[in-house]
Amino acid sequence: MRPYRTLPCGRTLSHNQSMANSYFYEDLVPGSEFDLGSFFVDSDKINAFATLTGDNHALHTDTDYAVAAGFEGQLVHGALMASLVIGQLISLGIFSESIVAMKDLNWSFKKPIVANQLVTVLMQITERHLRHKGRTGVVGRRFLVSSQDGQHLQEGYSSAVVRTRDAEGAVKLEESTPSFVSDAWVSKLAQSLERDENFIAATSSFDGSIAIHFGHVSVGLRIYRGHVIDSGRSIVSNATFSIAASCAVWLDFSKRPRNEFIPFAMADKFEVRGSTYEYLRMTRAVMAVTDQVRVLLGEGLMGRSDA
Hints:
The protein folds into 2 domains: about 5-175, Roll (Thiol Ester Dehydrase, Chain A), CATH 3.10.129.10; about 185-305, Nonspecific Lipid-transfer Protein, Chain A (2-Layer Sandwich), CATH 3.30.1050.10. The chain has helices at about 15-20, 45-55, 60, 65-70, 80-90, 165-175, 185-195, 195-200, 245-255, 260-265, 275-280, 285-305; strands at about 5, 10-15, 35-40, 100, 105-110, 120-130, 135-145, 150-165, 205-215, 215-225, 225-230, 240-245, 270-275. The chain is of the alpha+beta class and about 300 residues long. Strands 1, 2, 3, 4, 5, 6, 7 and 8 form an 8-stranded antiparallel β-sheet that branches. Strands 11-10-9-12-13 form a 5-stranded mixed β-sheet.
């Protein structure tokens, strides 16, 4: 199976058409998806990993023991699958010319994977921000490992430092269309709210601050009687209340045909912290804020669909 990037407008780019060379920072648009293909892990790989790491628990090395313990077969080490996913990513050449370093890796194991079970892997770009005068940028990546019937088996997050193709061009692009969730993007959100009549009306009696958490990036909006008088990360610690979700959830939220903040919150995809009273009193304002987030995310995705 060839990898592809799913574009917001519904088109896809094949490996032969678009991935003969590495993808650079400019190409890695938040919301883009790459199919990393399908593969399985046989017993030889599991046993070799057990020997290499010393994790030779019988669940990983003895099929009969694993079955007796209630599993369908010899279990694949969680760390082995994470390593193979990263290996698959590298072998496809997506970052072969652009990668500088992998900054972190967080992996969760939702359901067991057994020897010779076929899995599919999808990578989603969740965020990015430019650095070092446009020479490099940091890109957030989400990995989904699924079974053939669509069950999510493992999920991982990793950020990477990648090169830009053209430093000057990348800076100009960032200035015209700030990347989710950069400082410039947050400033643009504040400016959009200043022009939003629904937000102005909803916060006309409000004197406080709202923090918004986009994964590990947290920003605050200082609001006084209908106006955003300040924005930035320093405001977060003293926020009246805050709204939190992963970047992947925000991207999913932005692609819905209407504002589904309430259903998302009821499904625990959004977490609200701080003053419950003020949050409930400011529900209309929250809807206005999340509406503007959706608009900006949509503009960023569509504006770079041909990157």
